[in-house]
Amino acid sequence: MSEPRTLVVIPAFNESAALPGTIADLRSVRADLDIVVVDDGSADDTAEVARSLGVEVLQLPFNLGIGGALRCGFRYGVRHGYERALQFDADGQHLASEIDTLLAPLDDGADMVVGVRFGADSDYVVGRGRKAAMGVLRVLTRWLTGRRFTDTSSGFRAFSRRMLERFAEEYPLEYMDSVEALVLAVRGGFDVREVPTAMRARAAGAPSNRRFRLAYHYLRLLVVLGSSRRSQEVVPK
Amino acid sequence: MSGRAHVVIILLTVLALLFILRLVRGGRLKAKYSLLWLSVGAFMLVLAVLPGPFDALTRRLGVDYEPALFLVVGLGFLLLVVVHFSYELSRMENRIRSLVEEVTFLRHDLDKSQGHPLDAHNPPPG
After folding, report:
1. With bands split at pLDDT 50, 70 and 90, how would you rate the model's confidence at B58?
2. Which structural domains are found in chain A, ordered by start?
């Protein structure tokens, strides 16, 4: 049986430094996968670097935010008839060697597979306020989905065609999209699973000390989750 | 209210109505939005010319101070308008996002068919 056509969607915002390593890692493990880099209005030469690496490039004219970049990538996948898609970080946090682990549940009928860091959260040092905020989020997510998720924010994910089509239509467009997407999928009746995967420690990125921004997005998310319908929608098989 | 104040209000309202009509004629205000403001203007005009019925209504509602009712009604109306604008803004944002995606796909296809990126000699602004 031939492998289903799979697209790797890499949202990238000012990632020209990390991108070559990430693409090389992907190619060394799975040369058969098609890659699309969504340049989310970067100020650096992310798009040029991506083109020089020979991957498909979707260059957004201005910054839409991670969710917007992802939806654009998902739409591209749907239009080009891909049967599966992977969401992969540009910064090198995710390991290409873990892709097979992530894709395996799709053969088994899963619609969305979330790669969860081994021993999630253990190597994160978080403040008390952040911890409480994340706790509330976890409780809310649990209440809305009726399930306990280990890591609602992981951006290492795999999607079935069905899920891809849904997310191409409707994907949370703003920051903290990952939690919202999880809730959307579960409540839409999609088969969502978590698998433990190894991940690299996050490359020295900017620690989010933009507290107000974070707080704003957190509150926004609470509103979104709070106003979402509790009843399950029926998914056309 | 004194007669002079009435004249001033009537004058201002008429000026505002003319201004709205001018915007519509110049194509700078959509007719559908102008309806809203024209009806507000008409309401103000009626109120300025014939304050009697409004004053009677105020008394019937048990409001002691007539301008209070006017302010409450006006504020409520403005709030509704602002909510409506937020709604329109959300709709427009969704449309713009979809357009941005379409443009991005077109640019991608164009780059592929030309064999070189569109912005090689023509960087996008900002």
Report:
1. confident
2. 6-227 (3.90.550.10)
For A64, the closest of B100, B105, B126 (CB atoms) is B100
Residue B95 belongs to domain spanning: 67-116
Set of chain A residues whose Cβ sits within 8 Å of the Cβ of B104: 58-61, 72
Q: Give me the sheet containing A56-59, strands edge to edge.
A: A56-59, A34-39, A6-12, A84-87, A157-160, A112-117, A192-197
User: Would you call A58 and B119 a contact, using CB atoms and an 8 Å cutoff?
Assistant: no
CA distance B67 to B57: 12
CA distance A87 to A9: 5
Rounded CA gap, A61 and A64, in Å? 9
Q: Which of B78, B75, B69 is nearest to B51 (CA)?
A: B69
Alpha-carbon gap: B104 to the closest alpha carbon of chain A (Å): 6
Confirm whether B102 is domain-assigned.
yes
The reply to whether B79 falls in a domain is yes
Report residue A150 as tokens. 């280990």
In 3-state terms, what secondary structure has residue A211?
A: helix
State the pLDDT confidence band at A206, using cuts at 50, 70 and 90.
very low
Spatial CA neighbour of B13 closest among B30, B50, B38, B35: B38
Residues of chain A neighbouring B119 (CB-CB closer than 8 A): 47, 59
How far apart CA A199 and CA A182 sit, in angstroms, is 20
| Cα Rg, chain A, nearest whole Å | 17
User: Inter-chain contact A57–B108, Cβ cutoff 8 Å?
Assistant: yes
Q: Is A9 exposed, middle or buried (0-12, 13-18, 19+ CB in 10 A)?
A: buried
Q: What's the confidence (pLDDT) of residue A117?
A: 79
Contacts of A173 in chain B (CB under 8 A): 97
**CA dihedral (A143, A146, A149, A153) positive or negative:** negative
To the question of pTM greater than 0.90 for the whole model, the response is no
